[in-house]
């Protein structure tokens, strides 16, 4: 049954790409651009495009919130249904931006960033906009998806809490059957294994939070049409890694800093070399956390989209007999990656925290 569901989702994804405006614009066929199509589907946007031509198909237009002297709130529809202004990037390339209408008048959307028009125009040099940008607090696709993921996560977890409050310590039923083994796994096999036995309880809530958040976002992001590339957004992974870094630093003890500035067993002559290396290591560890999650999730989406693109590159639906099963296989593999990346991020966070709170051994 799960494989049938994944197969249906893969076909839905294929259908959404067939009808996407990145393949056809209006009624005239354009040269299919694989890179443009992939970037369109994995990057953030001010609309939630479902199917049909870009800016003309079925989309959920999200609220735009700008602070530019005064606060302005309006629908992103006023950009996507605005005037499309084309300009020449180079001899063989052409770009465009969407000039806002109605309440969005005076602003333009270029590469999903909002700029103020100067004398009614965008000033673009070498593909980069030089116009001023207002403070953009908009609810973009990734922000909306994050809210959706958090709400779903709270419903799942509070349902489990309600079950145990009502029934006590009994065999789990319903959603609690799924939640309890994961909670026990994070507590016993991640927190307790990597953090001092007398201190692990203090950090277990944080580890559970990042584990379930990453897991739910990864799983929902794998669903065609409604999924978003949230954990493939480097801003999100950077914030999660920064949380681990701050907890590690604020929890660190004398023994942790002693290993950095006076590494035991290292000759004094080597300390001038070792100290900078150890100090840089404080920041390279969370940096690796950030890049690992971002790269693995984004790569999975890109591979699936690239496989589906074979149909359009060869301009024959017959290629679907090859590309769709391959995309289906990668989609199933993505379910494993969703769990694996949540586990790795949580486990390495526990490892870094455990090293910071470890007491000296005599």
Would you write up a description of this structure?
It is a single chain. The protein is of the alpha+beta class. The chain folds into two domains: 63-138, no CATH class; 142-357, no CATH class. The protein is built from ten helices and 13 strands. A four-stranded antiparallel beta sheet has the order 7-8-9-10, with no helix packed on it. The longest helix has 43 residues, at 271-313. The radius of gyration is 25 Å and the shape is globular. Mean pLDDT is 84; it is low at 1-28.
Rg from Cα: 25 Å
Derived from helix and strand composition plus strand pairing, the structural class reads alpha+beta
SSE string, helix = H, strand = E?
HEEHEEEEHEEEEEEEHHHHHHH
Give the tally of β-strands: 13
The mean pLDDT is 84
Number of domains: 2
- Assembly state of the chains shown: single chain
Envelope shape: globular
Poorly predicted ranges (pLDDT <50, ≥5 residues)?
A: 1-28
Furnish the topology, listing elements before pairings.
Layout: H1 2-18, E1 24-25, E2 28-29, H2 34-42, E3 47-51, E4 58-61, E5 63-68, E6 70-75, H3 77-80, E7 83-88, E8 94-99, E9 107-110, E10 113-116, E11 124-125, E12 128-129, E13 135-136, H4 141-167, H5 176-194, H6 200-221, H7 234-251, H8 254-261, H9 271-313, H10 320-357
Antiparallel strand pairs: 1-2, 3-4, 5-6, 5-13, 7-8, 8-9, 9-10, 11-12
């Amino acid at each position: 049954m799960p494989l049938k569901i994944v197969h249906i989702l893969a076909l839905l994804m294929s259908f959404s790409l067939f009808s996407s405006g990145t393949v056809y614009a209006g009624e005239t066929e354009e040269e299919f651009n694989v890179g443009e199509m992939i970037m369109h589907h994995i990057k953030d946007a001010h609309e939630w495009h479902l199917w049909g031509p870009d800016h003309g198909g079925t989309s959920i237009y999200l609220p735009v919130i700008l602070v530019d002297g005064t606060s302005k709130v309006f629908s992103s529809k006023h950009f996507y249904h605005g005037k499309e202004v084309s300009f020449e990037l180079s001899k063989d390339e052409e770009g465009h931006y969407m000039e806002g209408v109605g309440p969005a008048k005076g602003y333009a959307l270029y590469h999903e960033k909002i700029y103020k028009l100067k004398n009614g125009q965008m000033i673009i040099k070498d593909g980069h906009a030089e116009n001023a940008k207002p403070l953009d607090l908009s609810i973009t696709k990734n922000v909306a998806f994050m809210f959706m993921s958090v709400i779903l996560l709270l419903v799942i977890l509070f349902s489990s809490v309600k079950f145990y409050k009502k029934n006590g310590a009994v065999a789990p039923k319903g959603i609690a059957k799924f939640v309890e083994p994961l909670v026990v796994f994070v507590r016993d096999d991640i927190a307790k294994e990597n953090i001092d036995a007398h201190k692990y309880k203090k950090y277990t809530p944080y580890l559970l939070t990042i584990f379930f958040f990453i897991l739910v976002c990864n799983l929902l992001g794998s669903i065609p049409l409604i999924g978003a590339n949230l954990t493939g957004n480097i801003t999100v992974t950077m914030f999660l890694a920064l949380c681990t870094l701050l907890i590690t630093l604020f929890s660190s003890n004398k023994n942790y800093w002693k290993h950095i500035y006076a590494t035991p067993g290292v000759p004094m002559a080597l300390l001038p070399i070792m100290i900078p290396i150890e100090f840089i290591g404080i920041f390279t560890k969370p940096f690796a956390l950030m890049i690992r999650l971002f790269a693995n999730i984004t790569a999975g989406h890109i591979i699936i989209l690239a496989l589906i693109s074979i149909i359009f590159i060869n301009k024959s639906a017959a290629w679907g007999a090859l590309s769709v099963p391959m995309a289906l296989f990668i989609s199933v593999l993505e379910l494993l990656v969703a769990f694996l990346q949540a586990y790795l991020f949580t486990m390495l966070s526990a490892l870094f925290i455990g090293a910071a709170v470890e007491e000296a051994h005599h």
